[in-house]
C-alpha cells in the first residue's frame, strides 16, 4: 500500500514538473529534422538506426547539464556566458544565434505551409494564422499556458508511431539495424551521418531548456523530477526519430524513392502505405513545425535578453519585457513573411543557417562544460568523474563531426572516399 502511494506521489510530482525536457527534445524534431530523418530511411533503409543509441545518450547529457545549471544557479545560459566569458564572446555568440535561428524559424513556417497544403489549405492562409496563434499564445499567455500548449503539440508526434506500423516494416531487419553498427567509406553515408547528429543537437535547445527551467522555478531541491523529464523527453524524441526512419525505410527505401523534403515523404507514403499514413505524417509535420516555430523564437528572445541584461519571461507584459517580447515578435513575423514568398530557395537558407549553427555548437558545448564544472558556480552539483568523461567525449565528437559537416557542406569535393 505504501509503495503504491509513493509511486502515485512520484508520478504526480513528475507530471507537475513535466515540461522543459520534453518540449526541448521534441522541438529538435522540426521540419528540417523530419526531412533529414525521412531521407535517412529512404536512402539507407534500417542501416543507420544504430546511431540513435549514442545520439540519445549525447543529447540527454547535454540537455541535463543545462537544466541542472538552470536549477542550481537560477540563471539562463546566456546570463552565465556573459558573466564568465565577457561581453565580446557573448555578443559574437548571440549574433550568430540570432542569424541562425531567424533562418531556421523561416523553415518552420515553411513546414507549416507544406503540412497545410497536404490537406488542401493554402499557405497564404495557414502561415499567417499559425504565426498569429504562436504569437498570441506567448505574448498573451502565462508560462504555464504556453508550456501546456507546447506539450499538447508534442502529442502529435505519436502519429509517426502509427504511421510506422501502417508501413508494415520488417521488424527483424529493424532489430539488426539497431544492434549492428554499419559504416560505409562513402561520401553520401558520412555526410548523412554527420547531418543526423547536427540536426539532433542544436544550440538553441540548450538555451531554451535552461531558461525554461529557471522560469518554471525549478531549484536544486526539486531538480530530480526535472532530470527525469529531460531523460524521458530525450528518449521520447529519439523514439519518434526511430519511427520516422522505420516508416520511410519500409516504404520509400524498398521502392527506391529518394526525397529531399518532409512533404516529399508524406506524398510518397500515400501510394505505398495508404492515405492514413500520409495524413499522420502530415499531422506530425504540422505539429513539429508549430512547436519549433514557438520554441526557436523563444530561445532566441531568452538569449538576447539574458545577454543584454534585460527583463525576460513569457509571463511578462510588453511594458515589463520589451526586448524579450519584441525579439520574439520580430522573429515570428519575419519567419512567416519569408515563408510565403513564392519559389523560396529554402535549401540556400537552410545551408547558411546550418553552417552558422555548426560553427556555434562547439562554442556552446565547451562553454557549458566549463560552467557546469565550476565549483564556485555549481558547488556540489558539478559533473561526477564518469559523467564528465561522457560529457567531454560528447563535446569532442560533436565538435569534430560539426567541423567535418561544415567542410563537406562548403567544399563538397574536399572529402572523396
Structure at a glance:
The chain has 417 residues and is mainly alpha-helical.
Description of the structure:
The protein is an all-alpha fold. The protein has helices at residues 2-17, 20-27, 31-44, 52-73, 77-85, 87-118, 123-140, 143-155, 158-166, 171-179, 187-200, 203-216, 223-255, 262-273, 275-308, 322-339, 346-372, 375-378, 385-410. It has one domain: Amino acid/polyamine transporter I (Up-down Bundle). It contains 19 helices and no strands. The radius of gyration is 21 Å and the shape is globular. Residues 5-17 have low confidence and may be disordered.
List the keywords:
417 residues
CATH superfamily heading: Amino acid/polyamine transporter I
Overall geometric form = globular
CATH class: Mainly Alpha
CATH architect. name: Up-down Bundle
Count the E strands. Answer: 0
Rg is 21 Å
- Distance separating the two termini: 62 Å
**How many individual domains?**
1
Low-pLDDT runs of 5+ residues are 5-17
User: Average pLDDT value?
Assistant: 79
Q: Give the number of helices.
A: 19
Sheet bearing the most strands, described? none
Amino acid at each position: 500500500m505504501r509503495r503504491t502511494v509513493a509511486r502515485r506521489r512520484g508520478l504526480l510530482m513528475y507530471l507537475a514538473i513535466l515540461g522543459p525536457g520534453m518540449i526541448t527534445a521534441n522541438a529538435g524534431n522540426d521540419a528540417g529534422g523530419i526531412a533529414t530523418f525521412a531521407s535517412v530511411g529512404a536512402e539507407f533503409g534500417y542501416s543507420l538506426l544504430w546511431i540513435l543509441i549514442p545520439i540519445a545518450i549525447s543529447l540527454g547529457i547535454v540537455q541535463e547539464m543545462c537544466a541542472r545549471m538552470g536549477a542550481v544557479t537560477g540563471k539562463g545560459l546566456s546570463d552565465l556566458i556573459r558573466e564568465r566569458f565577457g561581453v565580446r564572446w557573448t555578443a559574437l555568440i548571440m549574433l550568430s544565434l540570432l542569424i541562425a535561428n531567424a533562418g531556421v524559424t523561416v523553415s518552420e513556417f515553411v513546414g507549416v505551409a507544406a503540412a497545410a497544403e497536404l490537406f488542401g489549405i493554402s499557405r497564404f492562409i495557414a502561415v499567417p494564422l499559425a504565426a498569429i496563434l504562436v504569437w498570441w499564445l506567448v505574448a498573451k499567455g502565462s508560462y504555464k499556458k504556453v508550456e501546456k500548449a507546447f506539450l499538447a503539440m508534442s502529442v502529435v508526434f505519436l502519429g509517426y508511431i502509427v504511421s510506422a506500423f501502417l508501413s508494415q516494416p520488417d521488424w527483424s531487419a529493424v532489430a539488426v539495424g539497431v544492434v549492428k553498427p554499419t559504416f560505409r567509406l562513402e561520401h553520401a553515408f558520412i555526410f548523412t551521418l554527420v547531418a543526423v547528429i547536427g540536426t539532433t543537437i542544436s544550440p538553441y535547445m540548450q538555451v531554451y531548456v535552461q531558461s525554461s527551467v529557471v522560469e518554471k522555478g525549478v531549484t536544486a531541491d526539486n531538480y530530480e523530477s526535472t532530470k527525469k523529464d529531460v531523460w524521458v523527453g530525450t528518449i521520447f524524441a529519439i523514439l519518434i526519430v526511430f519511427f520516422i526512419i522505420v516508416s520511410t525505410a519500409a516504404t520509400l527505401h524498398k521502392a527506391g524513392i529518394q526525397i529531399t523534403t518532409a512533404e516529399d515523404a508524406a506524398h510518397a507514403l500515400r501510394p505505398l502505405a495508404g492515405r492514413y499514413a500520409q495524413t499522420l505524417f502530415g499531422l506530425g509535420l504540422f505539429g513539429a513545425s508549430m512547436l519549433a516555430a514557438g520554441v526557436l523564437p523563444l530561445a532566441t528572445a531568452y538569449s538576447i535578453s539574458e545577454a543584454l541584461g534585460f527583463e525576460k519571461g513569457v509571463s511578462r507584459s510588453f511594458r515589463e519585457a520589451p526586448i524579450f517580447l519584441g525579439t520574439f515578435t520580430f522573429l515570428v513575423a519575419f519567419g512567416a513573411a519569408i515563408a510565403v514568398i513564392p519559389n523560396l530557395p529554402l535549401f540556400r537558407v537552410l545551408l547558411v543557417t546550418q553552417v552558422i549553427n555548426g560553427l556555434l555548437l562547439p562554442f556552446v558545448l565547451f562553454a557549458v562544460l566549463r560552467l557546469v564544472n565550476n565549483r564556485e558556480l555549481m558547488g556540489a552539483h558539478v559533473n561526477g568523474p564518469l559523467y564528465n568523461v561522457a560529457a567531454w567525449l560528447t563535446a569532442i565528437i560533436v565538435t569534430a563531426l560539426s567541423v567535418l559537416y561544415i567542410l563537406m557542406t562548403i567544399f563538397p569535393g574536399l572529402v572523396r572516399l
